[in-house]
Design goal:
Elements: E1 8-12, H1 16-27, E2 32-36, H2 39-48, E3 53-57, H3 65-74, E4 83-88, H4 93-101, E5 106-109, H5 114-119, H6 135-142, H7 147-174, H8 177-193, H9 197-210, H10 217-236
Parallel strand pairs: 1-2, 1-3, 3-4, 4-5
Helix pairs in contact: 1-7, 7-8, 7-10, 8-9, 9-10
Length: 239
Amino acid sequence: MAQLPAYKILLLEDDPLMQRFVSLALDETGHEIVCCQNVSQALSALKLNRFDFILTDLMLPGESGLSFIRKLRQDDTISYGAEVIALSAGINAAMIEELEFLGVTKRLLKPVSVGDLQAIFVETPLQVTQPSPSAREAIDQYFGGQRTLFEQFKSQSLTLLAADIDLGDRLVAAGAFPSLHQLAHSLKSVLLLLGEQRAHELSLALEHDLALNNPVAIQIARQWDNLRAELKQLIDSRQ
């Protein structure tokens, strides 16, 4: 890839693993990344810095990414002309319509490849398809064939999966389905990036059922147990 200009980029993303993935991908091209986990942190960062780009997830705990973009459009002095790019796993037709109304024409679908992340700052990226990945396919599809980058991300991901399992257990026991939905949403993208297709499909199904009105607790617990077993097996395979 040709040498790209170095930009200062604000990344609004609540998932630490996705923050790390994006940072690893963009650090290679000399960009400076400032990571924020919620809208309040992002607004504070914008008061202290001027950015060339704002890369924001749309599904965030608390205030959403769309709400954040609306605030930027209501007061141009907040972002000082920084271009906004949407990053999300769930961009539907209604979201696209609102994003275009808000002047956001560049969008990335999670899980996103290293190549698309780097290319978004010079051109509109290709739409990312959902492959049936093995680890090798995941490396080629999302990490630009860079095995070292993949292994770094996988090592960090597996370190955090144990905490995700513990969190999921507590959320299921408490019946905290909105928070469990957020966890499933996060795991869905990470597992696809890792090439773990079955675990990805289980997290996708869990996320879907949790989004329904009045999800059935027994069914949700069974789905979590199945996903939990896959995550535990993934962790154990590295020991």
